[in-house]
Structure formats: structure tokens, C-alpha cells
């Protein structure tokens, strides 16, 4: 078995957005290796390409040119169904807005990623995770900030060694 040192590797990664009147180069020849266990911060001014880069390594968009390797795979060769599967099973996203289902309580929102991943064998796991972060009294709560913290902990626990998480402008309003 080959053990890869990196989880994200790009070579001359480029993204261009085109319209009838102009071309906007959002990313120009980005080379980066993100190794397993590293903590990486993507920083830059508005319009620098941070979101575009995160969308590419999160398999939400495709590069215009260059090479992209995510967990030993080239996502540019996959169809939308395969990309969706990778996002569900391998990549955790935390967005500025929590994107919680408002009519679901805390427990149900934490159960949802397992259901989507078709990995809902242990019904007690979401309850145990809420207990571990001190939210067992909130099983039926609809508080977004409490559910958000539980989901962050949940994603940290369900993602294996060969996975990574993307954090995009995390904040509580």
C-alpha cells in the first residue's frame, strides 16, 4: 500500500471565468502541497481567489487547466455523481452560514451527514457525540450555534486519517 504524504497537491492550477465580454483569471498557476496533519490558512484580499481555490480543492468546481490531486485522485476525471460521493464521504465543509435544516432539531441535524453517507449503522453515535460536547440536554433544541458546534465536532470525528476539512469564514452571528 502506498502512503501519500499529501492530501492536496496542485501543479499550475488555473481557473478562468469567461463571459461574452471578458475573461477573469481567478487563479493563475497555483502550486501547493498540503500534507496530512498540516494546518493551512488561505489568506488574501477580497477577489484574490481564496473561495475559488477552496471550491476547486473541495470538488465544487473544476479548474480551467493545471493538475489537481485530492487524496490521491484526480477529481477532474470524475463525473458529478462520483464528485458528490467524494464530497459526502471524504470532505467536510463548514460555511459561514450553518446551512442547518431549520425544522430539524440538534440530534436530527447531526444524524443527517451519516444518512447522506449511507453510514447510519449505529443510531447512538450522534447522541454520543452530542453528549461528548456537552449538548446532551439539547437533543431536541433548535439553537443554530449549539448545533453548529456539534456538527464541527461530528465532522472531526467521522473523517478518517485520509480526509480533510475545509473551513470557510467560520463565524457565529
TrEMBL record:
One term of GO molecular function: ATP binding
Domain ABC transporter: 27-137
Matches recorded under InterPro entries: ABC_transporter-like_ATP-bd, P-loop_NTPase
Classification via Pfam families: ABC_tran
PANTHER family: ALPHA-D-RIBOSE 1-METHYLPHOSPHONATE 5-TRIPHOSPHATE SYNTHASE SUBUNIT PHNL, LIPOPROTEIN-RELEASING SYSTEM ATP-BINDING PROTEIN LOLD
Gene3D superfamilies on file: P-loop containing nucleotide triphosphate hydrolases
Family the UniProt entry places it in: Belongs to the ABC transporter superfamily.
Protein name: ABC transporter domain-containing protein
